[in-house]
Amino acid sequence: MRTSFNGVTIELVNGDITEQSDIEAVVNAANAQLKSGGGVAGAIHQKAGPRLEKACRPMAPISPGEAVITEAFELPNRYVIHTLGPVYGRDKPESKLLNQAYQNSLKLAEENKIKSIAFPAISTGAFGYPIEAATKVALNTILENLSELEKVETIRFVLYSKN
């Protein structure tokens, strides 16, 4: 699916976040220590190689809603934006923290003059955020911030599973 708002293309695709070779920055649904783990973080770290974890070390830990940026190393992208989404039922208020994760990722993209960014479904895996509720937060956050985007031209949501 593809649509445009205020000159920004928004896409929804099924696929692997580590294989978005036409995207300048991918977002890592990171853990607080910015280390490899399961899910998106594990896949990104595995494909990017060990230099990614080394680059992340001085920036850790991060808090829910926070975002930081590194090179992408062996990934086919230029940057990785690492953000920590909330653990559903533990980090409160969940929707505000998830909103901040998307918003701060977009802010880093703008600051770094990134034209295209790909997001996974932040917090919906091991962090237990219900997919429908997380989708509403993600889309509302993107739509609320479109008028402030000057550099970002493409926002892609990459869903690994079809659920």
Strand coverage percent: 15-25%
What is the terminal-to-terminal distance? Answer: 15 Å
Structural class: alpha/beta
Largest sheet: 7 strands, mixed
Gyration radius, in Å:
14 Å
Helical percentage: 25-40%
Order of helices and strands: EEEHHEEHEHE
Question: How would you write the strand order of the largest sheet?
Answer: 1-2-7-6-3-5-4
Mean pLDDT: 96
Number of strands: 7
Low-confidence stretches: none
Shape, principal axes of CA atoms: globular
Number of helices: 4
Structure in words:
With 163 residues, the chain is α/β, with parallel strands linked by helices. Helix content is 31%, strand content 22%. The chain contains 4 helices and 7 strands. The chain has helices at residues 39-48, 50-56, 94-111, 131-145; strands at residues 2-5, 8-14, 25-29, 67-71, 79-83, 116-119, 154-159. A 7-stranded mixed beta sheet has the order 1-2-7-6-3-5-4, sandwiched between helices. The longest helix is centred in the middle third of the chain and has 18 residues, at 94-111. The chain starts with a strand and ends with a strand.
Question: Which descriptors apply to this entry?
Answer:
alpha/beta; 163 residues; 31% helix
